[in-house]
Fold D-3-phosphoglycerate dehydrogenase.
Amino acid sequence: MSKIYTLNKISSKGLEGFGQCYEVQESLQDADAILVRSAKMHELELPKSVKAIARAGAGVNNIPIDACTQKGIVVFNTPGANANAVKEMVIAGLLLSSRKIIEGVNWAQTLKGNIAKEVESGKSAFTGPEILGKKLGVVGLGAIGVLVANATQALGMEVIGYDPYLSVDAAWGISRHIRHAHTLEEVLGQADYITIHAPLTSATKEMFNEEAFNKMKKGVRLLNFARDTLVDNQALVKAIEKGTIEKYVTDFPVEGLIGHPQIITIPHLGASTPESEDNCAVMAVKELKGYLEKGTITNSVNFPECEMPWHATFRLTLIHKNIPAMIGKITSIIAEEGINISDMINKSKGEWAYTIIDTDTKVTDIKIKSIEALDDMIKVRVLSK
Ligand SMILES: NC(=O)C1=CN([C@@H]2O[C@H](COP(=O)(O)OP(=O)(O)OC[C@H]3O[C@@H](n4cnc5c(N)ncnc54)[C@H](O)[C@@H]3O)[C@@H](O)[C@H]2O)C=CC1
Ligand SMILES: O=C(O)CCC(=O)C(=O)O
């Protein structure tokens, strides 16, 4: 029985996918794997039993990836599974940033007496421009950015996209009407609206800072449905005071922004739809099962993709450093017992490698210990059918 610790509320449709051989628990004790959404895991002491973590969602900045990698814990996410939910929210955000809908609705709640007359005399305070024909800059053209770019172009916006690491898959999905910016400055200098869809990393932290705001057009509307600290909030408030930024719409309410008349704070609702919660959970559960049961790695952010059909009875999965002679050392230990390897695969990602070895005969515990004792060997698992 494998034990799964859930850190956030995970859709039941996803959890059902685990089936009879799994126990979903609210304790970390002896957990084989963890399922998480946005809960912060940096302070969490992970027991040795943990082999994998699946993020039911896209952003993995809440997970201590480097520490997990060193311990041989495979971290997965669910690329694209919540992208449509965020895209729809961004379209709402664009309209909220432009038309004074929230202000108008709040004002309408206060009306009394001759309401129809009050409405007609007061509504001019809530006028705002249309998005049709305006220029939108999309920063980050991944799963979400591409959907946002295509949808807003279809709504009549002129869209310019920037992504220095654009993937081939993403490029296939981008409408030919979207203009390609070669630098961030190109977007900042001409967009009427800017929407951020890059991940939070040490390289992107506060990429929207005073310097970036100084390059923006006056009166720009900025949307952030990616992560709070992609934006330097102090510089942002100053840019609003200077008139550079007309409105900031963020999915990440933080102190200093809440209550500001030109800032709309949404309580991280981008992915909060039943469809996206189901999609993410179903995908995350599939990834964990594939790894725990067969050693398959799909959509990992810290180890290479790896899958091999399993015909033999026994399987070793090995996480180790990506260095010369490692495979030779492992196979020599197995050969000392006269065991034949029926199939094998080795994949690498940067300085890390992952190997699957199938045998018809069980490798003895003593030999497994010898393999575990190899320098630069991080984790060895023994699976059987
Ligand atoms: N508000 C919410 O509920 C949600 C927020 N998110 C956030 O949105 C981010 C993006 O999500 P996805 O599109 O699914 O991820 P993705 O990984 O498909 O796309 C991210 C894109 O950003 C690009 N990128 C990286 N560095 C960049 C830079 N310096 N400038 C411009 N582009 C850069 C990458 O090349 C990639 O194409 C996530 O990392 C997460 O933080 C994701 C889902 C839900
Ligand atoms: O699980 C959620 O609601 C948050 C989604 C998110 O921020 C992400 O997928 O990066």
Notes: The mean pLDDT is 97. The domain at 1-82+273-303 is CATH 3.40.50.720 (Rossmann fold). The chain has three domains: 1-82+273-303, 84-97+132-265, 306-385.
